[in-house]
User: Fold these one by one.
Assistant:
Number 1:
Amino acid sequence: MTRSYATATAGTSSNTVSIDTNHPYFLQSSDNPGTPLVTMLLTEQNYHQWSRSVSIALSAKLKLGFIDGSVSKPTDNNIQIAMWNRCNDMVVSWLSNSISTEIRNSVAYLSTAQQIWEDLATRFSQSNMPRTFQFRKDLSSLQQEPTIHVRVQPRSKTCTCDVCSSHVRFAYACVQCDFDVCVVCAFLSIYVHEQKVIHHEGHKEHSLTSQRQALFKCDACWEEDKDYSYVCYTCDFWIHEKCASSPPIIPAPTYHHHPLTLIFSIPVMHRYFGRLCAICNKRVQSLCWSYYCHKCTFFVHIQCSKSTISLGNEIEEEGIVDDEPELVQFPLPSEESLFDLIITQCSKLRVEFQGEGGNSANIPLIANDPHIIKKHWSHPDHPLELHQLTISVNDNNDDDDDDDVDRRVLICDGCVQPITISHPSYYACIQCGFFLHSFCANQLPDELPVGASPFHPQHTLSLRYRHKKYFYSYVACGICNYVTNGFYYICETCDIVIDIRCAFLSTRIRHKSHKHHSLVQRPFSDSKCSIRNYHISKGVEYACETCSNFRISIECVFYPSSVKHRYDDHSLILRHPPFFYEGVFYCQICEEQVNNQRLLYHCDECDQSFHEYCPISCLNVKLGETIKHSIDNQAHTLALVFKSTTRRDCPPYLCRICEAGYEIQYFFECDGCGYLVCIFCIRRKNGQRRV
């Protein structure tokens, strides 16, 4: 007699597949992605009960294989891929609806049910084994430490020993930890100096056997040491005895405001960036044991977890200790503040050299800005006319073309800073699109006398500018190592170039990231920046003379504490690490992940984050200037642009002439057809080379 089965049909564009009701791909008509799988929601305390309930429920629905990996994903060209995706999405929905809100957000970006299941297991499945091991060690020292805080108590009928799992009516119990040990297991440990064999959550596959002292590299903390250990002879897995006895939870660490959980590898969703220990600031390896706060994305080495220091978020909670009020404090308040700093420092320089009886003839001071400069040294071809930047109530009216020059963002061709309402006077040659702050046109020193520049005090520095015709031929600043096509100072003797923004930086500053001591400017030390964690390999850095291991790159000085961007209605605030944030988050501009252990901009009102370099750039090149270029005998207008790949898997930008690929480079681009030419090809075509 033949047994018949009801079937359900899943159709694709060209195939129809029949699914047996006993097949994992079969979905009942009552299966709903909006319903929770079990009534118990997962919290930080009930993982074992919750996981058992979910496993039973999924087994009843024939979907257990989607979380344990036994129902693997078909290949993309397999006819069953659509059915697998549908079932996987159903299980993902069931799991998400069975998790508390606090935990649900942390797995929102995991795409498969198996990834969610393994991530939750890594974070919440720590059993009592480490506590069992520590408990037995404490019991073995009862003769020396008689004040151990456990006592025999009557227990309920359902109570089991957390060591041997047998049912007990009386047990040594810790009510606070909900931990019970039967009398046999407790006193067996008194006569054994150490536990010879243990089962540890960090190595579920096999038991671990104790070893006498030996020199080895621990698979838990990755440190080489001569110590007592536990080893798995099957897997060659070897860990320190002290690592095996690490508590599963540190309830109240002095250096963090949440409990920390012992994990045996970094969760997959946090492996996009290298993770740093909050105590020693060194790399936490992906497969290394560590302590973790999932609410803050906070990691600590297992060997650093016993630290008693108090970190706090001193950057966010407290201001700079202002024992040197005369020093400039960074980061500056806004984007406009850098130009304010140039004006202030230039005025101080003028007073200093006049007060010392120095030669101030080359540090001009013009009381009134002339209405027309007939022949300025930087733009001798046409006269420059004085203008005032205005803000019109009709600025948002696209039909009103009056004062269009004032309404668009104007960039000074001298200091390459924006012309704003804070300093509204500027000179313009409308014909050439050439603009100068009135300060840059009339007040910048033609020369910096000997000793005026702390970076190069040996010689006089002369003010220079490449002709407007060759705006794409830039020079590199010796301080910040950024290129510029604006004004710069040069030592003719040493061929050292300093751009305008760096020429007036102080040798000693205060910075919010290091509030207790000032920072001094010095040549780069070939070390990592303490804020951005990037290697400082050129130019100068600011370093603390008291704290020998603290230094910041020159870029950290240029990022203002607050910026505005069209993607957000509010001001974006510069946040210094550590920035506590649950789960993963993405930049609203480039849509790549943002690292909470580096500088970033964040809007608290909208809960939006940005890479520090996305809403504002440290580039010191005026973009947007245009040239005429012939493409297939047709004239195209190409504008100077800066291109940078935003994603790790993005292909490079290709020059249409030399066909070279660049991840970061200046190009000329046709706004109409997207034609790209690298700046080097344009220079070769016009016979210009970099200075």
Number 2:
Amino acid sequence: MAIGNLLPCSTPAHDEVIGIDPTTGFQVTVDGAFHGVPTATHIMKSLRVIDIATALYRLLRSRPSDSTRSAWSPNLQRLFDVGTTDLRELRGFIHHDTTRQLRDAIDLARTERSARIAGRGLPTRNNALLATLRHEIDLAKRDIAGLTAQL
């Protein structure tokens, strides 16, 4: 019997595999991660996380001070475009906590963009989220280093 949109998996390679993702063909574990992803694919997805998280980090740090009005610039728009990508392309390839952190940062970036365009003051800087983004970037870099050593 299929679970959600997953196909049944008759011979899982891992005890926690609950089915097969019909889009990618990868086995899916109980936490929603893909099992058996080729190393090169995993590296590419980790590089994408670094791109997104770095753009969001730079965007959310670029401000004069809390509650100060600030304009929206072409440079900020470029960072916004990179950082507010569709995270569905990363589903299953990265940990769900990373996805949640990126989604929170995207929501805050959208809020700040609206405030800047409207000429309103910016919300208080979320230093905890900025630290989390730095941490996610560092984790992705470590993943890449470890995976590259396996090649």
Number 3:
Amino acid sequence: MYADTEHLGPLQRGVPLAGTMLQYNPFLDQHKYNNYDFKPKGLCCRSKHCDLFYQVRPIPSCYWRSLFAPAGSFGDPHIRTLDGKLYTFNGHGEYTMIRINTSSVSFELQARTELVSTQNGVTTNATAFSAFAAKDHTGSSIQIEMSQDKKSLTISANGKDLTKQFENANYTVLTSNISIRWDNGKISALFLKPLITIKVSLGMRLLVCETLVNKKFKGLTSGLMGNFDDIDTNDFMLPNGTELDANSTRTEREIFYNFGQQWSVDEQSIFQYDDGMTFKDFSHPEFVPLFSDEVGEDRLNDAKAKCGSNPSPSCVSDYLATGDITLASASGKTEETSKMNVKVLENETPQISGNVTINAEVNKTVELKFNITDDGKSQPKFIILKRPTNFSFNNQTGIARWTPKNDISAEISLLAEDDMGVQSPAFQVSINLCSGCSGHGRCDYDDVLPTENAGSYKAACDCDLGYFGNDCEKETDACQESPCSLNRTCIDLSPKEEILLGRGYNCSACPHGYDEIDSSCIDIDECESVELNNCNASTETCENTEGGYICNCRSGYKKVDGHCTDIDECLTGTSKCEQICHNLPGSFTCDCFMGFTLSADRHSCDKSGSILKFCLYHYTIFYFFTGEKCELILLFSPLSLSVAPTDKSVMYVK
């Protein structure tokens, strides 16, 4: 953690370090900020969804030039206006430095001066700032005074004395309208509604004040710090709006009487006074200071000599007024610091452009190109913040080359710094790094996964046929899922064979009864052709089965020792013929005696004539039952009879 704002490092503009739009103020509403801003970002980024969070909460844009204009007051009062004009005003009293009054905003900064004392305690005919007070339209206020011993500050905020509290360098006042804290040895008060900052510090027995005013107030300010319109020749404007021309403000005396004294504070003072005191107790209109532009040549040259080889106007003026070289030198240094601060604020931050995203592959060189744009006369320099191994960079051309040797997560970030030490935001390169897919695939830079490092991603591999794995490092076993039917043997093919044949495996030959069609075993229907089966068409039918066939006996036949033989229905008694049964191959027919006819059911007989029932036969002599007794009817050859042995009957044939 850095101790102050002077050592914060470069501004981070890359995910996940970049700041985002916030829903709640982290200083004024910490509980809601924690629940609705801080925690959601942490959850998203820890689950590797930072990019989604930043889509909803985008990174705010940056201003390459400051939105604020500086003004300052220091020494035996020297004032630098918001338009950059530096002049000396040695008034003794309380004065309006800045006044802003619009329909929605008001702000006033006032200053108090007192006579300067030397190191030996001798009072001089010069003045210096000893107190500042500021207040805006919300009622927020601050008052900073130099202590009587000129060694410390007395601080009040919003009407409350906080001197004791500010002895702690970490003490802060923070409301929705004002923020007050120590900033690098200065009391810094930021008025949050008008966005105006004043910084007051203790100098050499005097106070120094720096002011930053939002540029939206251009043309809306008045007071000793000018009217703020980017023109320094018209900064001497009176409270009634009258602009003083150059003829009225050529000398320090004319500035003192015609301009400075006109801004003396009256009943509109915003200072808090001890009991019984008013602004009148600090007003000294009768005071006449030493005007440094009226001294003799010898005295002027002596002052210049005391201030060094390149004397600043502030040092010379303060030495002439006080005779105190320590105080004068301090004023000279403050002047130079003030000039530098103005340059820094007016200086454009350098900007880097170049490869925002790169696609890199192990053992292949990738080239990056970066450019710097800046308003300075000298070319800014690159500063590499993070670099991977095997990374080279040419600061003159801005060209970098990198040959990754492995797919370990890497980071590349850099910034630009101009001749004033102003740095650009950190420029982070988003890296999509591919392993090379073991030479068995292609890098898919459209399919990437985040790694443990911000801005570093691992590209997926689109593996060639026959390979799989994150880096295509494994050969595919096409037989793993037993693709061959009918328990055939599966033979896994090499990747080269897979590419050639368009498949990952071979199967052994199809079993008997199957044909191989398009690498599949298709059952042969042996019943479609008599040549494919050995079924006896007269006694058997063919039934196709998976991989074979079955010969089934036709109706009227049965299997006997694997062959279909005729069933003698007449002999087995299964014919159900009432009188006469005739066996046929695979079938039978029924018939009737003389005098009977076969009925419609083809089994029973209906009476239609004389029937002789067989009683008895002996050789060629037949006896027939004629009704009541057996009588010999005739003698004839048995070949003339059709015999049904079961019912012992015969039919007479003429």
